[in-house]
Amino acid sequence: MATTSSHPPTTTEAPSAGTARRLAGLAAVLGPLLFAAAFLISPYDTNADADEIARVIAAHQGATEVSVWLWTAGTLVIAPGLVAVGMLATARSARLGLWGSVLFGTGLLAITLTPSLDTVALGALDKGVDVSTLAKVAKGTDDLVVVGVPVLYFVAAHVIGAVLLGVALLRTRTVPAWAAWLLILSMPLNVAGFVTGVEPVTVLSFVMLAVPFGCAALAFVRHGTGWVRGTS
Description:
Blueprint: E1 11-12, H1 19-41, H2 50-59, H3 61-92, H4 94-112, H5 117-126, H6 131-142, H7 145-171, H8 177-196, H9 199-223, E2 228-229
Helix pairs in contact: 1-3, 1-9, 2-6, 3-4, 3-9, 4-7, 5-6, 7-8, 8-9
């Protein structure tokens, strides 16, 4: 006797792109570009000591505040963008895509959870705290283990995560090879620029991230993830 399955047949994801998919694709490009703009406007070198940073922020509070706003917006925007790129990469290469997404995402989360010295400095200056005291607070905050450990995790996780995502997209030919290599190289370059204090290198690294994310986002918007999904 013939039997019928209790589950309806699975269907492939519809090719038409909805609003959510388009917005996630846009976010994948806009997030890194907002980070690039934040570093471009930030008035101090990333390898400067606490005393110099405090003095520069005190002298350029307006630029510092704009930089903080751009970084905050970039952090919010890149989240759905990373989800889009990560879903696409995971659908194409499950292990590499998932590990890359988790590491990159938790790396960003770790650095977001650490105190923003720019914001603390702006608040302190607004209340009349002198630059010398502000520098001591910045140095003391940086020296805390509860700050140092998440920073170290961020450095390792966002670099390894970007490399794994790039390799996933490269192996599966989801994006052009040159775009995948830009992704693989972007975050190691980001760390190099940050440590050396060479601002153009840091800014370039985020632009390098935006380009392959944009290529992946375009594939995501046009074709979805390619996953097969059921209706049960």
